[in-house]
Design a protein that fits this description.
Strand content: 5-15%
Radius of gyration: 23 Å
Number of strands: 4
Largest sheet: 4 strands, antiparallel
Structural class: alpha+beta
Number of helices: 9
Strand order of the largest sheet: 1-2-3-4
Shape: globular
Length: 232
């Protein structure tokens, strides 16, 4: 199946179809509509042809899934590049593109945590997001396990949680001193909704949001110091 991009009524569409070389010549000679069996993606949805075979429907689903997963990496890398090269202008580019900044920052946070060479094509962006807050050696360990066991994101999350609980029971884990923060229930519901819309686990969303806030505060402080002529 090949993908063909074209313009239809001012919308970009992708045509999902079998490779043209796989179509018997006699079918072309018989005047069969070449667009039959194609699934078109537009800005407002999918155009599914009548009589679509199960094989074509399944193939389109696999390709759409791949695009969705890859787009998270693409957007994350795009924002990282913008922040690194256009410090004073990249937010203007985000607004012009009509993208949600908070979602992009979450994507960028995961992208920064995984160098291009360490990303596993067999695993989804969400697999990586589950591990983004861990040290690199632990990331690699869990990526290996998830890839070998073909875990879903939910299975990976459960395996990590079980491993942490085992460490606590065995006494091998190092308990961290934590200060509990009293948060109103309405605020928690709001945060959970934001995490869900961002497409990442709640804990990862909290960490990413706090990291981004800290980064922004430190950058602003450094800028103020430079303006005041004070060395950091």
């Amino acid at each position: 199946m090949t993908n063909q991009v074209s313009d239809v009524e001012d919308s970009k569409v992708v045509l999902f179809r079998r490779n043209a070389t796989a179509v018997p010549r006699q079918r072309k000679a018989a005047g069969v509509d070449e667009r039959r069996g194609q699934v078109l993606t537009t800005k407002v949805g999918l155009q599914m042809p009548a009589g679509l075979t199960f094989e074509d429907w399944e193939r389109a689903g696999r390709q759409l899934s791949g695009i969705v997963n890859s787009s998270s990496w693409w957007l994350g890398d795009w924002l990282v590049y913008g922040k690194d090269h256009y410090t004073d202008r990249y937010q203007r580019g985000i607004r012009a593109a009509g993208l949600q900044y908070q979602t992009l920052r979450n994507y960028a946070w995961v992208s920064r945590r995984f160098d291009f060479s360490r990303r596993r094509a067999a695993l989804s962006f969400q697999h990586h997001a589950e591990l983004a807050s861990l040290p690199i050696d632990e990331q690699e360990l869990w990526l290996d396990r998830a890839e070998q066991m073909q875990w879903t994101t939910k299975q990976l999350r459960s395996a990590i949680r079980d491993a942490r609980e085992d460490e606590v029971r065995d006494g091998s884990g190092t308990p961290e001193t934590m200060r509990r923060l009293a948060v109103p229930g309405s605020r928690l519901q709001w945060w959970h909704k934001a995490a869900e819309q961002s497409g990442i686990d709640f804990e990862q969303w909290v960490l990413a949001t706090l990291d981004n806030a800290a980064e922004r505060a430190l950058v602003e402080e450094e800028a103020e110091r430079e303006q005041a002529g004070i060395s950091a």
